[in-house]
Amino acid sequence: MEEIRIDIPEPVSYILKKLNAAGHEAYAVGGCVRDALLGREPNDWDITTSALPAQVKEVFRRTIDTGIKHGTVTVLLREGQFEVTTYRIDGVYEDSRHPKEVTFTASLEEDLRRRDFTINAMAYHPSLGLADPYGGLEDLAAGVIRAVGDPAARFDEDALRIMRAVRFSAQLGFAIDPETYLALRDFAPRLRLISRERIRDELLKLITSPYPETFEVLYDTGITGVILPEFDELMVCTQNCPSHKYNAGQHTLAVMQGVPPTVRLRLAALLHDIAKPVTKGKNAEGYDTFIDHHIAGAAFAEKWLRDMRLDNATISEVSTLIRYHDFLFPKDEAGVRRAMNLIGELFDDLMLLMRADNAAKSDSTRDRRIRTIEKIEELHRTITERGDCVDIKHLAITGGDLISAGIKPGPGMGKILGALLDEVLEDPSRNERGYLLRRASELDP
Prior knowledge:
Number of helices: 22
Structural class: alpha+beta
Shape: elongated
Number of strands: 11
Radius of gyration: 28 Å
Largest sheet: 7 strands, mixed
Strand order of the largest sheet: 3-4-5-2-1-8-9
Strand content: 5-15%
Number of domains: 4
Helix content: 40-55%
């Protein structure tokens, strides 16, 4: 078998050599080894060692006790920060997240045994080569996500690992080992013990991956029933969703594939039809759930994303994209300028979402709607290239100009500026200081 060689960054090599020189074992370990073997650039480099935390601190001058109870010390070098963790065996997990206690060990193999998946349970040393006691290299070559040892034991230790299994599958395009897959179903309810923040982080990595359609695995294994049960309704929605291929859930997966992998677009794609499956008629907020599903969906997205601890900017952006994803655009320049004013900087993203949404439909009007979107995009390019004013900040006059002209500040001034903008949206040639000042004086009561 050809010898495995990995290029290790100089600071990592330096740490390994320093620990070795002090009489300790040390390896690069985990995801960095996996990514390097795949030809990907690791985000960071973790190091595992036989040295106890106190011994690591003796070897390096500058350290931080990052998680010293669990054996982790951060070594500070000029090039950055590197986590060094002592070989350990985890004790009993009482909360599906943290071990009650850890025991340090002198065995690398025992340390690797506690890790989640075989592809993450490999370690590498430039002189000693690859340590792979659980077949991670073989699974990497076969494209398989497999739990180390007994999947039930690994998921019992940390229920978030069931999300990580699906996330790695989506990021790498790997299949999930059948035994591991079955354990996902058994442990899905345990996600209720995991914080929303941890679930959110895994979910965002999954949906912004090269294979967002892997989200369907969350449905098949019952995970969506815990984190987003409304998606389960999409997977059986056909009656209220006649234009969708197969069902609304599979339509949603296709839309996710059809938009660029940004957080706001993938979230908007995931949630854009989330309100459609509700029984046709008025829902609790008073919206007709079929006709006004985009409004109800925006309201749901705002609530769910807040519950998932998303930041306010992302919540606002996603809910806006959902609210307008079925917007009936006027097909003239004035109408598009008004739409640009309404939607703002999200206009391009909205076009991408609308394109993907319509491309994933199968009804007879799909091609006509796509041609309409192309026409709107063409008008948008013309308006943008010409530099037409589409918002108040680009009017040729300001509130200060109106005050100088004798108009009193207050709500009335705001109404005047709004009326002037409305005229400019209709005819951009009116965005001229003299004309706007004359119109302002006429509009001043």
